[in-house]
Structures are given as C-alpha cells and as structure tokens.
Amino acid sequence: MGSAASSPETLAHLQEHGWARIPSVLSKEEAASTLSKLWAARDKAAASGEPSHYTWLDPNANNVRVFNLLQLDPIFRTLIGHPTAVGAVQAVLGKDFSISNFTANIARPGSGSMCFHSDQSVVFPEPWDRVWALNIIWCLTDVYADNGATRFVPGSNRWTRREHIPGNAPELLLPFEASAGDVLVMDGTVWHTSGRNVTKDQDRALLFGYYTKSFIRQQINWTATLSKDVQDEVSPEMREWLGLNPVSNIGAVGDLRFMSEQFPEYAEKDAAGS
C-alpha cells in the first residue's frame, strides 16, 4: 500500500471531506513525459476513429477527452496499478474492487463545464449512504481555478439523495488546486463538475482512474476493448481488477462455505443422528 495514500492525515481528510491531495507522486519531469504520451495517445485514438469530443458530455470541443487509455500506452497501465493509487483504493474500498474506467480530460482555453454530478450517482441509485466508488486523479499540469480545475461542493459527500442538492449549488463550488505530479483522491459521493478554462494559453490535463466495489458493473468492458497482446501482458492481479478472468466477484462479500461449516452445531447433530 502506498505510504502517502495510507497516512493517517490523508485517510482522516478523505473520510471527513470525501477527498484528499497527495503531493508529488510524480516528479515534474514524469508528469511532463506522461503529458506528452497523452497527446500521442490522443493522436493514436483519433487515427483509429475515436472522437475526442462528445456533445452529450462537454459543451464544446475545447474539452479534449481520451478514452481506453490502457490500450494506448504502457505508462497508463503502470499508473492505474501504481502503489499510491491502489493504496488509496484499498484504504477506502478494501481489496474487493474493480477498475471501472481510465480516461483523460484536457481542458483547453475556452472549455466549459460538464454536468454537475457525483460519480456514484451515475452508476448507482440513491440513497448514496456508502462509498462504493473512488477516483484517482493524476495532475499532469498545474491545476487552478482559471485553467479549469475540477470544482466541487464542500460537504456534498454527505448528500445521500438528489433532493439534498441545494438550488444554489453553483455558488458553492470551489476548485481543487494542485501541482503537476500531485494526485487527487475523490470518493464517489462528492458532487463536482469540470471547471471552465478562462486562460488564454494554459491547458489543464488530468487523468481519471475510476475504481468501484466489484459488484458494480464496470463502465468499460475491458475484454472487448483491450487487445489480446495487452490482456496477455498484464499481471494476474491486474487481470482480476479488470475483470478479464472467466469468473468475477463470486464470493467476494458472500459466505460460500459449506453449510456444515456455516452451522457446525447442526452438522454435529446430523452426524449423531439426532
């Protein structure tokens, strides 16, 4: 488990507020190198016909989206299983989790805000009274209000139903600010949106690793989207997290012991003929 992710201070802040910042997980040079690989991945995705803008997701094409990152470059397969990321995920969700998605959002000057949402509300019906999802956000550039930082409502991790959303929610939004190389951990109950980039020439590049409890259906069918070469390359542990094995999540939270083990006193009576 990543030590920074499991520090008492990080976990306490995450539990209380639904988010935490882990500084300098990547060096500035590593963040810049990953950003270069992200742009190359965007070009590779475009060459295969994958759009980088969806009209239902973002108000204009200045938000550049890159999907299926795990297929596009080995660096993304490294980051999704990074000890700091997995440490944070296991601290919140336990060892029973799945990798649901891994995408990028580059907010270029002029980009607008997407819908106001919590990640858990997108995949699970209310009430949202438990944390069953977690986002690990890799900051590849500095992130601040003007260049499109993700905006969130403090305390919204306590909203358990849609009726709890106040009518003045837009006035309550605050930016997540971080430096290139930092990781933001945000649980699935925090309500947020992408910020507007009002700068003239500054991009904001983030990677979003989305992890859930394994009983929640993954957003991406990795068996369909990852090539055989990539599937064969990943570790057995990663195969389990991606749901690539024939059997998934059976017994993860259930009790599948034989009945004689579940109720030993009755088994003894049966054996004695009583």
Q: How would you describe this structure in keywords?
A:
alpha+beta, 274 residues, 6-stranded antiparallel sheet, Jelly Rolls, 18% strand, 33% helix, single chain, 4-stranded antiparallel sheet
Descriptive notes:
Its cofactor is Fe cation. It holds the Pfam family PhyH. One of its GO terms (molecular function) is metal ion binding. It comes from Aplosporella prunicola CBS 121167. It contains twelve helices and ten strands. It has 274 residues and is α+β, with helices and mostly antiparallel strands. It has one domain (4-272): Sandwich (Jelly Rolls). The chain is globular, with a radius of gyration of 21 Å. 38% of the residues are buried.
SSE inventory with pairings:
Elements: H1 8-17, E1 19-22, H2 28-47, E2 63-66, H3 69-72, H4 74-80, H5 83-93, E3 97-107, E4 117-118, H6 119-123, E5 133-139, E6 151-152, H7 169-172, E7 174-175, E8 183-187, E9 191-193, E10 204-213, H8 222-225, H9 228-233, H10 236-242, H11 259-262, H12 264-272
Short summary of the structure?
The chain is built from twelve helices and ten strands. It is an alpha+beta fold. InterPro entries: Phytyl_CoA_dOase-like.
Q: N- to C-terminal separation?
A: 50 Å
Question: Strand percentage, roughly?
Answer: 15-25%
Q: Give the mean pLDDT.
A: 93
Shape field: globular
The counted number of beta strands is 10
User: What structural category arises from helix and sheet content?
Assistant: alpha+beta
Helix content: 25-40%
* Radius of gyration of CA atoms, rounded to a whole number: 21 Å
CATH class: Mainly Beta
The CATH homologous superfamily: q2cbj1_9rhob like domain
| Widest β-sheet, arrangement of strands | 1-8-5-10-3-2
H/I helix tally: 12
Question: Within the CATH hierarchy, at the fold level, what is the topology?
Answer: Jelly Rolls
Main beta sheet: 6 strands, antiparallel
Run of helices and strands:
HEHEHHHEEHEEHEEEEHHHHH
Number of domains: 1
Give me the CATH architecture, please: Sandwich
Low-confidence stretches: none
Organism: Aplosporella prunicola CBS 121167
Cofactor: Fe cation
Pfam family, one: PhyH
Protein name: Phytanoyl-CoA dioxygenase family protein
